[in-house]
Structures are given as C-alpha cells and as structure tokens.
C-alpha cells in the first residue's frame, strides 16, 4: 500500500484582531457597581480581553468582536445594561456568494488546519443555489461504508490529469506502455491564477511553496515568470517546477524550454489555433500534459466538448469567480447558469460521445468550500481548481478594493512568508480531511471514482420532484 | 397509565431474575404544570420597556397591563425592573391597556430590542426560541397577543414551506378530552409488549458527556411524567438514572460505550444507532475536554482523551448482519422492543424495509439536519437528505411493500414544534423524536459552543463541574414537562380542526398538507378551504 497522503500542519494564528460575528455593547453609565460583575463570569473571559485590547490598541480599524454569543452576561447583568450585537464588519465580509460564514470558516481552517466542528445541529437554509442545491449520500447497512479520518482504512484522494488509456498495451518485454503521460496528484485540486479583481498581493512565491509542500500544482501566469519565485526558490528551482503549470500567456514571452520541460503540465488559453499549438508543444516536450483553458460563456460547454472530441487531453473550464456563466448579466433575463450545471452537461455529453475517459475535466470557479470540491466531482469533474480560498486564508476580506494604492484591510502587503505558506497549507490540509469525511460517509475509497457518480449525490430539484411532486403536484414557476 | 396494553403487566413483572436483583424502585413524576420562569435575571425580550426617574409610583401601569410587565411589590418603595419579556410590544398599541400613553408622567418608553437580530438562526428564528421558552415557562402555547411567528422557521424549505389545509369548520366538533394523542410502538404482534406512549414523541439520545447529568435526568424525569421515553445516547448510565429505567432506551452505538448485558436487560427498548442526523456517515465524537473523570468512568476510558466511535458497525455489512444484531439483543432481553436508528441515505427506503424484515419494531429515521452534539460543519449541512423527504419516501415504500402497519416509523432531525410534529406525522411518521427543543426549553440559545472547551456556557451541554450546576433538577424537569404540555395542547388543536379523534388518523395524510412552492394539484382539493391558521402556519 502506498504511504498515506498526510499533510503535516501546525496552527498559524491570525496577524490581525479577529472579526467575530458578535460583540457586546455595554451601556456603562447606568452601572450599579454591584461588585458581582457578570463580565467576570464569561466562560471565554471576553470582557477582560476586550479591556486589555482597548488598553493596548494597535489597530484603530478593528474593534473587539470575539464574543461567542452565549448571552450569559447579557442575561445575568444586575441592571440589564449589556446588549449583544452583530458585528457590521462581519456582515460586510465577502459578497452574496462568498458569504461571511464562508470567509469565517476559511479563516478558522487556515488557523487550525482542523475540520470545523460545532454543536447545536444545522442552522442554515434548507437548500440554496448552486452547490447548496445538492446533498452527498451516505452508506448505511445495505452498502459498504468506510471509516473516515479516524479509522484505519485508507481512503485515497489521488486523481490523474491527462488522457487515460482505454486498454492496456505491452511492449516486447511485457512491460506496460503508456501512450501519453499522466500527472498524478494526491488531491483533486489545483490552485488557479488569481481573478483580475484580486491583484493586490504578489502571492505566487507563497502559493508555489504551499503547493510544493502539499504536493499539488499551481497554475502560474507565464507573464509573471521568473518573478513568481523568490531567490531561494530559484536557487533550488528543480524542486518547484513539477508543482508549477505555466499558463502560457500569449502576450508574454514563453518561459525557456529548459524550465518548461521540468514542469509536468502547461495550460494554453483557448483560441482557434490551439490544436496546432498543442502539436508544436508536444513535439518539443512530448511528456508535457497540456490543458486548454476554456471560458464557460454562452458557448463554453459546446467548446469544451468540441475540444475533447478533437483529442485534447485536459480541459480546464472556468466560469466567473462566483461560479456563474461568463457574460453580461441581465437581471431581467434568466439567471446565469451555474458551474455545477455546466459540468454536468459537459460530463454527460462526453459519456454519450464515448470519450469521457480520454479527457480530464478540471472545473474552476465558485469552489469556496471543501464540499464544493466533492460535489463538483460528483457532477462530473475529475478535479477542481480554485484560488480565492487561499487568498482568504490570509485574512483577506474579499473586499474587492484590491488595487495598488488602495488600503487593504487585511494588510496583505505586510505578510511574511512563513505565515502565508502556513495558512495556505493548513487550509489545504483541512479541505483534504473534509473530503475524506465526505468520502467515508459515502463509502468511497477512491476520489477517482467520485467523478460523475451522481448515485452518491442527491439533487434538490430531483428530490422535490420525486417526493414532493407526488404529494403536492406541479411546482409553481418562479 | 396504560403502557402495556396487551400483557397488562408492569415492565418489572417480566424482568429476568438477575435484573430484578439490581433493580431500584421506579419513581413517579407528576405531570402537573407549574410555572418555571427563566433562570436568568433578564429574560431576552422582543421589546424593552424603560422606566425613567420621572415615575411617581402611581401604579397606573401595573393596574392596566394584563401581562404583568410592571411589578410594584407590596411594601416596596420602587418598582421592580419592568419584565420586558412579557410585553406584547407594538401589538399592544392598538389596545386600551397600552401603558405608554397612559402614564401621567410620560415616564415609560418602549423600544424594539435590537438584540433580537443576534438571536436565532434560519432553522430556529428568534420568535421560535422566545415562544419555546414561554411554553417551557408556562406549559401553554404563548398568547396570540405576542404575535410570535413560531410555527415555522425561515429555512425556506421542508417543514418551513409546508402548511396544513384546515377545513373552514371541523367535520365533527370534539372536546379536547375526546382526542387521543397516544401511539403504539410495537405493531408486530410478536408477543412482546405493545408499548403505548401518551404523546407521539419521545426524547432523543444525548449521552452523559455530551450533556450534563442534570440535563439527562431532567429529560428522563419528563419522560416518566409524560409516559414516554428518553434515551441514554452512546455513553451509558449514571447510577442516578436507575429509578427511570422503565422510561429509558439503551442505545447501542458503534463505540459500544456503556453497553453491557445489564444495561440491555433493564430497559423496555434497545436502540441500535447505525447513524445519526448530525453527522450522517460519521461516528460519534466526544472531544477530550468533555471526557471528565465522571464521564470516563462510565465509558470505561481514559480521562481527557477524545472519544471517536467508528463508523459503521464493522460487524454489519448487510441486512443479514443487522438481523444477527437484533437477534442478539432479543435473546438478551426477551421483552425489549428493538429500535433501529438510521440516517437518510438515498436508498433510505431500502434500509427501512430491510430493517423491518430483520425484525425491528421501530424504524427511527434521523434526517440530515438534526442533532445536538458536536459535529463537523461539513457533515451537518451536506450529508444525507432532510427528514421531510425521507419520511414521505419511507412511508410510501413501506405501504407499497405491505409492511407499514407492522412497524412504528419515527422521524427526527429538525423537528422543532408541535406543528413540525404534526407535519411529520401527516407525511407518514407515527411519531417523532425530539432533542434540540428540549435543550431550548432548558435555556439553550443555539450558540453552537456545546462541543468546545468546557462545553456549554449555559450549563446544558457540559460536564464541567463549574458550569453544569447552573441548572437545578426540579426546574429542568418542569421546563420540559411544561413544553410537552404546550405541544400537546397545540397538537390537540390541530386534530380538532380536522375532526380527528386520534393522532393515529393523521398518519400519512399528506392530502391535508400543502406546499407553498407547489400548485397543490395532486389531490382533489374541492374540500380544501381555509389554509392558514395564523400568519405563518
Ligand atoms: S455573551 Fe457570552 S461569550 Fe459573549 S461576552 Fe457575554 S458571557 Fe462572554
Ligand atoms: S482584503 Fe486586501 S487582499 Fe483581500 S480583497 Fe480586500 S484589498 Fe484585496
Ligand atoms: S453551548 Fe450553546 S448551543 Fe450548545 S447547548 Fe449550550 S446554549 Fe445551546
């Protein structure tokens, strides 16, 4: 059995004061001075910490918001002077898709590298849009089950990138021959380039360090080469290149051949001449796996299928960073399609065309949580790409004012290398553990087998139709 | 109290000799409703009444307010702090007993409590919490005057979008005492006791370790009072639980904590927990901090280490294996009913029918949104289907297979109110298991901190010796008894409007339900008329 994939982690505390959900407002003027102050009784000692925080105030743009929302002090105060409030700074985090809860839980994982655990059951919506409109399955009695992260069973999260042979071939020495190369990564995830909206920080050296540590791959814009690595990385570049997939930016010079040939994969933006370009590249570096980046706009799905039919080995499909189809958004027209639906369409079309195993589909955009990774796979992707969670792990607020010269509330220009790499590593480790939890519950031992296994997923629309449709008839049109 | 309608024997009369030797006298707990006000000085209120120093203590406000907000105790010089949580707020403005304008000194002021925004969540909105606290305090549904919108939550699906289609007038006029709310838990006719419980719900499993012993005892004592059950959870029993054995369910879960011959023999129901809604597909989980010396003694483990139960039972990979498990318990306790608790996978109907054929008496479906203990957030939200789908699916399948009337179908996982209970039954369950609502009645605010550090800061889900004593046993027991009484009143109200003499007539009557997102054209609706009992449900 191969060695278990395990990411070694240590906690990396935040640099800045935490932006918690709750705070206590204290109407001091009426205080009874009863000497029995309920504030002393806070299990989490928050009132004393707050006083200390204010005494040593370092950041004028952060108030103290670390109350856990238990209402105990509020309800015990002799004069009923305390009031629990929701932090408006918390509510401003992110956007409609990258909600404050997502940002918060990402920070938590980047700090602890652990699976977030809480009590009191589920607090959220019944179902939602996109990935929130599906549930993953679990095995019970009638089907085999797996142990998950605390058990002894080995759940493999590795996946392959490249064209898989449809049958085995042997040479004259009876050794297996692989007609094309395949990249094997230990987790169904690669790190994408940053969206144009988030360009403030120069994070490439940190990302490259984090993916090397976790044995993953990051897509790096060739326009940023060689600045994407720092001096010490450059001194030992052979160690890093297998973890870099250059996005060959047509507006920038290509990295030298001796650099490209030490990478395992490159990405080319889709264009009319893309098939010729693949041939050219394969001629120079035959073992390079070549991915084509296809924008999921109105014709994106069709284009991905065409490329697969033309023999492209890897297709990286990308919607916008909220997971919506790329293109002008018009509220009055139908809602833009979500990446999940587009992946399902690509996957099922490729199956119908009989070529699903000949192409790897990497699905990007809208992957904000580890469950999105598992769900994207169940919908038909082989693996996912994502970027923003790594940026958020560095205490980013996703405020979208990410431009040079504009104040970054997360002070991203100031971060040190160890901190950045540690937070990203921790986040990746926590995602890995959570993928195993979901797979253990599903009774799956191989991430490769998650691809398109909709039998291990339950879709909101389908359950509604199957169960409530029978009871309540036709659904109202919205 | 009639529990064993066939044998007409008390459970103790049929216990094996060795169990009888260790048996302690069983206690009786009264079902009487007594006020059990909040244990906090300041109950959270929707509106706040401020009294200024201009007050001349004329007593006008105390005289006109019918809700008891203003209290001037005899012999006292000053008013007590206004009991704001009793104020009906803006609804009072339209009445002639609105105190604010009638104060001659204009010393009173009413404001909406801004803190309400920070209370509750989509599944348990603030109004539902406030109404549940009121029910636990008084034993009755909150007065309409409070305008609590609490029959549904704000989750936007499932129970929260389902409503009853009440007829304009009940087909028959029934008095409250003509309506039977009891259900039978053994429908197999297999010679084992036909256990009947007085209301169609019982208390869910919460282990000692996940909750305090006062919480566990309060649940058990309320179960005695209501002639229902409470469940040990996966953690065994404290000695103090013995006087409640006749109303306990021993849970056999994958970690087998607290499972001994003796704990199986002394109770009327034994439950196999294959999975649980809080973390479907994952094993039980007690964080190290909560594994105190008392807990570790009962669980026979080492103090301070985290306890993970495996998932699944590694001895069960088929229905045949499951049957072997059931046979094993049935031989050890020849009187016990067997309950099989499963979560809600896509093939939950197959699991249920398989479990029925293996010999279970109770199929307990625990939907993906339930749970009280520590669980990974990713599991709570994403794994397994919500109970609303599962119960309808399983009910239909059991009917089609001809097995529905041989087994009790119990639903849990997000059942919060009497309305949810009735909806679950109309979707196909015989009854439900509740957990979170019991904790809410004890003062839980759903802060989710149960699992971390010393556990619940409010003394409910903790074994910390500094925190747990916040709750007194008598108070805890009474709060749960009161809540159950209020629920029973509401359930009777629902049955009455349909002219039903028994809650058993409601089972599977999904034709009496409507869904706000559907055209509700699946049934002939010529007899449907009034839809809403009040603004939400
Ligand atoms: S509400 Fe609870 S956590 Fe927050 S400050 Fe008060 S006692 Fe502490
Ligand atoms: S917090 Fe900083 S890094 Fe994050 S989006 Fe805002 S400006 Fe950019
Ligand atoms: S910790 Fe919070 S959520 Fe858990 S039982 Fe206590 S009050 Fe309720």
Outline the structure in words.
With 478 residues, chain A is α/β, with parallel strands linked by helices. Chain A has a domain at 150-468: Aldolase class I (TIM Barrel). Chain A has helices at residues 46-55, 72-76, 88-91, 100-112, 204-214, 231-235, 237-240, 257-260, 274-284, 300-309, 339-352, 370-379, 388-392, 417-442, 460-472; strands at residues 22-26, 82-86, 117-118, 134-136, 159-162, 169-170, 176-177, 182-185, 189-191, 218-221, 244-247, 265-269, 289-295, 314-318, 360-364, 383-386, 457-459. In chain A, the strands form 5 sheets. Chain A has an 8-stranded parallel beta sheet with strand order 9-16-15-14-13-12-11-10. A two-stranded antiparallel ribbon of chain A has the order 1-2. In chain A, helix 11 (339-352) links the parallel strand 14 and strand 15. Chain B has helices at 17-22, 60-64, 99-102, 126-138, 213-225, 261-265, 293-299, 319-332, 348-358, 377-382, 387-400, 418-427, 436-441, 473-498, and strands at 47-51, 108-112, 162-164, 183-184, 196-197, 201-203, 230-231, 248-252, 269-273, 285-286, 307-308, 337-342, 362-366, 375-376, 408-412, 431-434, 513-515. In chain B, 26% of the residues lie in helices and 11% in strands. Chain B has 14 helices and 17 strands. With 537 residues, chain B is an alpha/beta fold. Chain B folds into 2 domains: 47-112, Alpha-Beta Plaits, CATH 3.30.70; 176-515, Aldolase class I (TIM Barrel, Alpha-Beta Barrel), CATH 3.20.20. At the A-B interface, helix 2, strand 2, strand 3, helix 12 and helix 14 of A face helix 8, helix 9, strand 14, helix 10 and helix 11 of B. Strand 3 (117-118) of chain A pairs antiparallel with strand 14 (375-376) of chain B.
């Amino acid at each position: 059995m191969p060695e278990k994939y395990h990411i070694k982690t240590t906690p990396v505390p935040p640099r800045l004061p935490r932006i918690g959900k709750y705070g206590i407002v204290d109407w001091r003027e009426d205080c009874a001075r009863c000497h029995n102050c309920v504030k002393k009784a806070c299990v989490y000692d928050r009132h004393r910490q707050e006083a200390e925080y204010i005494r040593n105030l370092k950041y004028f743009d952060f108030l103290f918001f670390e109350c856990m929302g238990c209402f105990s002090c509020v309800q015990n105060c002799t004069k009923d002077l305390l009031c629990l409030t929701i932090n408006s700074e918390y509510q401003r985090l992110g956007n409609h898709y990258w909600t404050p809860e997502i940002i918060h839980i990402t920070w938590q994982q980047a700090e602890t590298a652990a699976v977030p655990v809480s009590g009191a059951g589920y607090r959220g919506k019944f179902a939602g849009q996109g990935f929130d409109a599906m549930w993953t399955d679990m095995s019970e009695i009638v089907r085999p089950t797996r142990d998950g992260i605390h058990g002894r069973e080995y759940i493999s999260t590795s996946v392959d990138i490249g064209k898989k042979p449809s049958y085995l071939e042997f040479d004259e020495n009876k050794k297996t021959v692989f007609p094309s190369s395949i990249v094997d990564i230990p987790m169904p995830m690669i790190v994408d380039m940053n969206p144009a909206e988030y360009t403030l920080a120069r994070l490439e050296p940190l990302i490259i360090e984090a993916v090397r540590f976790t044995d993953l791959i990051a897509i790096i814009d060739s326009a940023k080469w060689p600045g994407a690595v720092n001096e010490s990385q450059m001194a030992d570049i052979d160690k890093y290149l297998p973890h870099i997939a250059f996005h060959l930016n047509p507006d920038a010079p290509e990295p030298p051949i001796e650099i490209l040939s030490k990478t395992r994969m490159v990405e080319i933006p889709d264009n009319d001449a893309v098939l010729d370009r693949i041939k050219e590249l394969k001629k120079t570096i035959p073992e390079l796996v070549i991915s084509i980046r296809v924008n999921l706009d109105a014709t994106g799905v069709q284009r991905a299928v065409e490329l697969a039919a033309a023999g492209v080995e890897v297709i990286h499909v990308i919607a916008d960073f909220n997971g919506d189809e790329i293109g002008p958004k018009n509220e009055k027209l139908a809602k833009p399609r979500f990446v999940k639906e587009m992946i399902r369409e690509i996957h099922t079309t490729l199956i119908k065309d009989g070529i699903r195993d000949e192409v790897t589909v990497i699905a990007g955009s809208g992957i904000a949580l580890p469950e999105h990774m598992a769900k994207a796979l169940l919908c038909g992707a082989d693996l996912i790409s994502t970027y923003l969670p790594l940026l958020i792990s560095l205490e980013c607020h996703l405020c979208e004012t990410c431009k040079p010269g504009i104040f970054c509330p997360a002070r991203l220009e100031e971060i040190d290398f160890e901190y950045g790499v540690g937070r990203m590593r921790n986040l990746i480790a926590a995602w890995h553990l959570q993928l195993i939890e979901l797979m253990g519950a599903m009774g799956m031992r191989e991430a490769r087998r998650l691809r398109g296994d909709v039998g291990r997923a339950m879709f909101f629309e389908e359950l509604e139709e199957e169960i409530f449709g029978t009871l309540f008839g036709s659904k109202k049109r919205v | 109290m009639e529990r064993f309608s066939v044998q007409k024997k008390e459970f103790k009369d049929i216990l094996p000799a060795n169990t009888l030797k260790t048996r302690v006298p069983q206690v009786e707990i009264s079902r009487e409703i007594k006020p059990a006000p909040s244990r906090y000085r300041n109950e959270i209120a929707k509106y706040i009444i401020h009294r200024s120093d201009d007050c001349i203590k004329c007593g006008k406000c105390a005289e006109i307010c019918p809700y008891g907000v203003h209290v001037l105790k005899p012999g006292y010089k000053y008013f007590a702090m206004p009991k704001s949580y009793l104020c009906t707020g803006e609804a009072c403005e339209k009445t002639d007993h609105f105190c604010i304008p009638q104060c001659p000194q204009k010393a009173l002021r009413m404001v909406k409590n801004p803190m309400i925004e920070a209370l509750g969540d989509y599944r348990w909105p603030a109004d539902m919490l406030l109404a549940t606290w009121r029910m636990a305090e008084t034993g009755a549904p909150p007065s309409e005057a409070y305008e609590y919108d609490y029959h549904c939550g704000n989750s936007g699906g499932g129970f929260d979008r389902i409503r009853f289609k009440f007829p304009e007038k009940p087909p028959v006029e029934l008095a409250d005492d003509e309506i039977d709310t009891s259900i039978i838990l053994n429908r197999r006719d297999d010679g084992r006791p036909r256990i009947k419980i007085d209301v169609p719900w019982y208390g869910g499993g919460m282990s000692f370790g996940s909750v305090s012993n006062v919480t566990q005892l309060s649940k058990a004592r309320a179960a005695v009072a209501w002639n229902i059950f409470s469940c040990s959870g996966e953690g065994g029993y404290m000695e103090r639980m013995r006087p409640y054995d006749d109303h306990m369910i021993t849970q056999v879960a994958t970690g087998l904590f607290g499972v001994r011959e003796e704990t199986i023999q002394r109770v009327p129901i034994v439950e196999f927990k294959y999975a649980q809604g809080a973390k479907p597909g994952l094993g039980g989980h007690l964080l190290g901090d909560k594994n105190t010396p008392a807990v570790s003694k009962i669980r026979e483990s080492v103090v301070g280490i985290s306890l993970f139960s495996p998932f699944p039972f590694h001895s069960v990979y088929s229905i045949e294996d499951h049957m072997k498990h059931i046979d094993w318990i049935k031989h050890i306790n020849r009187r016990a009913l067997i309950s099989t608790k499963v979560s809600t996978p896509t093939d939950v109907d197959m699991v249920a029918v398989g479990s029925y054929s293996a010999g279970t008496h109770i199929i307990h479906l625990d939907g993906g949104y339930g749970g009280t203990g520590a669980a990974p957030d990713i599991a709570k939200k994403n794994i397994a289907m919500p109970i609303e789908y599962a119960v309808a699916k399983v009910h239909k399948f059991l009917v089609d297979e001809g097995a529905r009337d041989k087994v009790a179908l119990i639903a849990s996982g997000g059942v919060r109110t009497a309305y949810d209970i009735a909806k679950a039954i109309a979707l196909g369950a015989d009854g439900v298991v509740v957990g979170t609502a019991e904790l809410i009645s004890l003062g839980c605010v759903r802060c989710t901190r149960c699992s971390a550090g010393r556990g619940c800061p409010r003394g409910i889900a903790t074994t910390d010796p500094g925190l747990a004593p916040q709750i007194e046993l008598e108070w805890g027991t009474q709060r749960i008894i009161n809540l159950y009484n209020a629920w029973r009143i509401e359930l009777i109200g629902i049955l009455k409007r349909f002219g039903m003499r028994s809650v058993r007539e409601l089972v599977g009557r999904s034709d009496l339900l409507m869904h706000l997102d559907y055209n509700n054209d699946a049934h002939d609706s010529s007899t449907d008329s009034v839809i809403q009992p009040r603004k939400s449900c």
